[in-house]
């Protein structure tokens, strides 16, 4: 049973190219399935979350991160009576436009584009995710892209520079770029996925950071949110230690954050009482943490930024990754023939280079860089 303010496949704003309905699935279920079968989604298995692929088999990748986001988001969506199928589609697709090497690759590609064309929007991975599902996937005879529903496309575009929003609005008046110009909200399902993304990556980055040895569990327990659940676990299981204690702490921390979002969002929904999806768009954000949990979240995020993301070993590898992306960008711009013909013959060369690089996995980018420069950047 969906709440009246949830997105319904039956009242979707539809697809850009009309299609007959499927006999066994609604439109949001079809969107989810198209994403799962897409090339861009499969590539996520070899795209960095924090640690590069060759650094260990058990660290999260963009693919496993996306699956964890989907689990968190569906748990919340069910209790709030939101559309679980749409939520799952958004969670699985939210990173399909990410570059190789995580944020380091994104930053390098953005800087490279801005250096060639100052004043442009540069590279945005959310905008690239939209390009992937709208244009770059080649799975259908009748059209480019996956031809997803408006609500799915809207939720994938989490952030958007005004210049890109204006570009979208010019090509699709009143479409998915409009809310960034009007400063209105997306659906509750999209709001939920944004929050689930943060909940998931904070938790699994603690796990991966400790597994890597770059931070210790004792260090992380200086953060009040983590310490609270470690102490709670030890009160119930005094002999717990090692990885089992770490996992029990993270499990409790995740569950508590999920319950907090459910309670806080329920309170906001009861206060504002939206009756339709359009009411949701006109309100302030209605999917939120409590004020206390928001503070605890930022403390943990700050700890991870200082002690993990800025750890000298991580910085060293991300600096090398930036060099790989920057080098590839320069080579392809100056010699487009080094790219496949479909990209080399595109009229907007800067965008074609960005599309090609963004679609690479970590290991393909490294192979291409070694082929074109003769240098081996990382040793497996």
Automatic annotation (TrEMBL):
Kindly give the InterPro entries that the UniProt entry links to this protein. Answer: dGTPase, dGTPase-like, dNTPase_2, HD/PDEase_dom, HD_domain, PHydrolase_assoc_dom
- Listed PROSITE patterns: HD
Start and end of every HD domain? 62-202
Query: Which SMART domains does the annotation name?
Result: HDc
Query: What are the alphabetically sorted keywords of the record?
Result: Hydrolase
List the NCBIfam families: dGTP_triPase, PRK01286.1-1
Report the sequence similarity comment from the record: Belongs to the dGTPase family. Type 2 subfamily.
Q: What is this protein called?
A: Deoxyguanosinetriphosphate triphosphohydrolase-like protein
- Phylogenetic lineage: Bacteria, Pseudomonadati, Pseudomonadota, Betaproteobacteria, Burkholderiales
